[in-house]
């Protein structure tokens, strides 16, 4: 009879403390994360003829279009980098970020039926989205590598190895953190007010133009240069290009800046997400 | 030993669509919160009555619910539509959270608010077992260990590598239930899964639930089926309009629910004088009653009519229609009677084993012998017929407007 109260393993109450991130619970559900990733892959390409080939087609065609529009017609320089490689690298990275962002921003609404019937840590789904996109990114980077190797062997492109290449995983990780962080912030807001999903739909396009994807940062100057530099994506894209093409310099300060911003956004996003997940089913 | 303690749980819902008004409410709420005041909308929240339209946009779907559950209890939750049963289960399974109050839990909870949550139509049965199992909280290792058992229990071995979209709906439900049945939580929560599937599936379901409780685990389940609650549960909880109105043994709970319903239906309409009686200058009701007061499908139902007849004619015609909850006429009947001293009485017996279980209302029509209309008394009395224990394993609702007992012979 004594101390009966201390035996409880769990308490359900109206609100959680802000700082309870409950990341341990996510780890316990790691099998589920990987099953969701697997489901995404096995289900997406069912009933298509080309199947996973679409993973290759999309960046290649976008690159060709950019090449004709921006290099041939608009004659925007690519800072001495081969234009095809320049665009392909930019698009591949941008797609990863934007997929992480857009797809996770829809988490609550898209998964309402499953969230409404069973409890598991809600973050499992956005995390699995980021991981399946990571696999997609891996495949697309192989396309990039293939084109790169082709250019080196048959078009005499020179490649000089530099040590910052080892930063590649860090850059990709930061990109994932930023995309996931922004995505869950939006997903928390979209639950009640769908207006945010409309905002995101065109906001993401504007954001692409505010990121040095189709032009190099060195092409901008003055106030514009400043605005583009405060975009936390800029150091990631620029450093990625330096690591591969060795043109420009590796921006450590920018990288630190992005790291701080991304971690902050992710942290803030998780807190917001955990607040919303408790009651979103009532309004979704 | 307690495994669950529910303490003063409230759940508030906002009705209607999300709009700019919602945003204003959110803002107002936030203003009160930063000033450390109580939520302004808690005060204007109304009792959740399904059929009356209230003035407030906020309702209490759960209103001060408290109860305890001990290890090994099988708790049946009963109540009318909209009573808040599913809301309570959702809160217990953490799908949504309470507005006020606390719940303390000991052990792992698994809930089955629906069969087949997260099943993906394009994936095979095998892949779905893993996915669904993981969603319900099993690890890959646990699923691997139980895989053969799950498949055997489901009886769909042959189709295990076929996408589930090619399954019949029965096979789908079987597979989904098998996964859930092999969870091993300390507390299992089930919402009306008895409503689906064929008789064999239901028998398996119920058998599994019994087995689970015999292993010392706790089951909480919602059912509209009083017979199933009586035969399966050790404890019963009755809810009405968001409130817990009874908690005790399963038999007592069913009894209490039936009595509460008896007050909702109106089995008699009686007037002591013609002055305030319903009717017109030709005919008025003296009394109309339905007996017995607590009715099972195996009871004969007696209807007694008595009228004040102010017309010059001695003979008049009484007929009635029995209307089900959908507003359909189940059947009707009528006959001719004489009145003595301006009072005419009649009675009619509906045989036993004819009505299905459910709530029925009665329209009474009075005509002259020449079928000139005197008055129509709409919805004048109502009654509920309850189901009785059956001697076979199917506990689901038996279809049909009526449920006559027919003669069957072997050979
Ligand atoms: N998300 C929501 N927003 C507003 N009201 C809701 C919401 N969910 C449930 N309600 C209301 O809460 C009340 C209780 O609903 P609940 O589903 O718990 O009833 P129930 O007892 O399970 O009924 P049934 O027997 O029909 O399954 C109902 O009046 C319902 O309309
Ligand atoms: Mg319900």
DSSP helix fraction of chain A? 55-70%
The total count of helices of chain B amounts to 9
Low-confidence stretches of chain A: none
Q: Structural class, from helix and strand content of chain B?
A: alpha/beta
Number of H/I helices of chain A: 12
What's the domain count of chain A? 1
Tally of DSSP β-strands of chain A: 1
Distinct compounds present: adenosine-5'-triphosphate, magnesium ion
Give the N-to-C terminal Cα separation of chain B.
Answer: 54 Å
User: How would the global form of chain A be characterised?
Assistant: globular
Largest interface: A-B, 37 and 43 residues
- What characterizes the major β-sheet of chain B? 6 strands, mixed
Helix/strand/pairing class of chain A, anyone? Answer: mainly alpha
Number of domains of chain B: 2
Structure, described:
The complex is a heterodimer of chains A (284) and B (411). Chain A is mostly helical. Chain A has one domain. Helices cover 66% and strands 1% of the residues of chain A. Chain A is built from 12 helices and 1 strand, in the order βαααααααααααα. The longest helix of chain A is centred in the middle third of the chain and has 31 residues, at 124-154. Chain A is globular, with a radius of gyration of 21 Å. The mean pLDDT of chain A is 87. With 411 residues, chain B is α/β, with parallel strands linked by helices. Chain B folds into 2 domains: 67-261, 3-Layer(aba) Sandwich (Rossmann fold), CATH 3.40.50.300; 268-395, Immunoglobulin-like (Sandwich). Helices cover 25% and strands 35% of the residues of chain B. Chain B has 9 helices and 19 strands. Chain B has helices spanning 20-34, 40-43, 85-92, 125-135, 140-154, 169-181, 199-214, 226-232, 250-264; strands at 2-14, 46-47, 58-70, 74-79, 100-105, 109-112, 187-191, 218-222, 235-240, 243-249, 268-270, 283-291, 295-296, 301-309, 315-323, 329-338, 343-350, 358-368, 373-386. In chain B, strand 7, helix 7 (199-214) and strand 8 (218-222) form a beta-alpha-beta unit. The N and C termini of chain B lie far apart (54 Å). The model of chain B has no long low-confidence stretch (mean pLDDT 84). The A-B interface holds A 4-5, 7-15, 29, 31-32, 35-36, 38-39, 42-43, 46-47, 113-120, 192-193, 278-279, 281-283 and B 2, 5, 13-14, 18, 22-23, 26, 90-107, 111, 113-114, 117-118, 120, 122-123, 127, 130-131, 134-137, 139-140. Strand 1 (10-12) of chain A pairs antiparallel with strand 5 (100-105) of chain B, so a sheet runs across the interface. Magnesium ion (MG) is lined by residues 85-86 of chain B. Magnesium ion binds at residues 85-86 of chain B.
